[in-house]
C-alpha cells in the first residue's frame, strides 16, 4: 500500500465540479485582479474567523510581513517568536528590518513557552508573534496579558490553524491581527500561493489594503510605499468554493488523529500529540516523537508510507540566522523536540485502512529496533 503524506488529488475529486465552475466564472468575467471573488472571500473568511475585517494577500508570509508593517514595525525593533516554526515566521519579521527574538517552546504543545516571553522583552520589543503550530493554538491568555502589560502588539501566525479554537474562540481573531496561509497543503488550501490577514481593527485592515496594492487608495495615487501582494481572484474563487467544507475537513482530521492516538497508544518509544484541554486542535499535521525518527522515516518510506519532518533544524540554528548569535544549546526544548519529531500522513480524506497500515509500519519498526 502507498500512503502519501497529503493527497490533494483525493480532495479535488470530491469538489471538482464546484471548483471548476468557480474558476470558469472568473475567467469568463475576466475579473482577475481584486475582483468580486476577492471581496466576497474576504467577507466570508472574516465571518468564519469571527473577525470584523479580512484582507486577501498573495501568501501567508506577506500576511505576517504586512501586519507588522501596518504597525510601523521595522529597523531597530524586536519581535518575539518561537524558533520551532517554519522559517517564514522569522523571515517576515526580518523583511521589515526588525530582529526576530527567538524563545523556547512548551514541551507538550510545541508552542511558544509564555513563561519565557517576559525575560526576552527589551525597550526595543514591539510585538509578539505566537505560532499555532501543527494546528494547535498557542496559549494566548498569558501572551495577551503580557502584551497588554508591556504595550506590545500580538500578531497570531495562524498559517497552520484554520478553524482552530482557543477557549471557544476562533484563532486569528484573539490577537491584534491573525495571519493565514492558503498554501495548497494547508487545511484550507488554494491552487497556488495565497494568504490573508484578519483583524478587528478597520484602521489596520485599511493600512494592509494600501500596502498590498502599491499604497494606492485610488488608481495612480500613491500615499505610501506599497507592494504588489494582492490575493489573486482565481485563488479567491477556489477558496470560496472550498470554505464551506473546511469545518467538515477539520472534523475528519480530528477523527483521523483519534484513530492514530488509539492505534499508537502504548507503542514503545512513540510519543503521540498532546492536545490542551482548552483547545480545538485542527491537526494540520499529526506529529509524533521517536528517538530514532530518521530511521523511522526511512523505514516508513521503504514500506510506502510518506512522512515528513516539521522541522528538523530550528530557526536559530539555520545558517541565515547565524547573526542572531544563538548557538546550539541555547534553546534546549526546541532543539530536543526538533531532533525527535516526525509527521505521519494526515489529510481529511485519509482512510481508516491507511491509518491502520501506517501504524502497523510504525509498530514493525519499533518492535525490530533496539534502543
Ligand atoms: C507557521 C507558518 N508560518 C508562515 C507560513 C508562510 O505561509 P506561505 O507559505 O503562504 O507564505 C507557513 C506556511 O508554510 C507556516 O506554516
List the helices and strands and how they pair.
Blueprint: H1 8-29, H2 36-48, E1 53-57, H3 60-70, E2 78-82, H4 87-95, E3 99-103, H5 117-120, E4 125-129, H6 140-150, E5 153-157, E6 165-166, E7 169-170, E8 177-181, E9 195-199, H7 202-212, H8 233-242, H9 246-264, E10 279-280, E11 286-289, H10 293-302, H11 332-338, E12 341-344, H12 352-368
Parallel strand pairs: 2-3, 2-4, 4-5, 5-8
Antiparallel strand pairs: 1-9, 6-7, 6-10, 8-9, 11-12
Bound molecules: pyridoxal-5'-phosphate (PLP).
Helix content: 25-40%
Q: Which compounds are bound in this model?
A: pyridoxal-5'-phosphate
Mean pLDDT: 97
Numbering strands along the chain, what is their spatial order in the largest sheet?
1-9-8-5-4-2-3
Q: How would the global form be characterised?
A: globular
Instruction: Tell me the series of helices and strands, N- to C-terminal.
Output: HHEHEHEHEHEEEEEHHHEEHHEH
Uncertain residue segments = none
Distance between the termini: 28 Å
Portion in strands: 5-15%
Describe this structure in words.
The chain has 371 residues and is α/β, with parallel strands linked by helices. 39% of the residues lie in helices and 13% in strands. Helix 3 (60-70) packs across helix 7 and helix 9 runs parallel beside helix 12. The chain is globular and about 70 Å long. The model has no long low-confidence stretch (mean pLDDT 97). Bound molecules: pyridoxal-5'-phosphate. Pyridoxal-5'-phosphate binds at residues 59-61, 85-86, 88-89, 131, 157, 159-160, 181, 183, 193, 195. The site of pyridoxal-5'-phosphate has 15 residues, from helix 3 and helix 4.
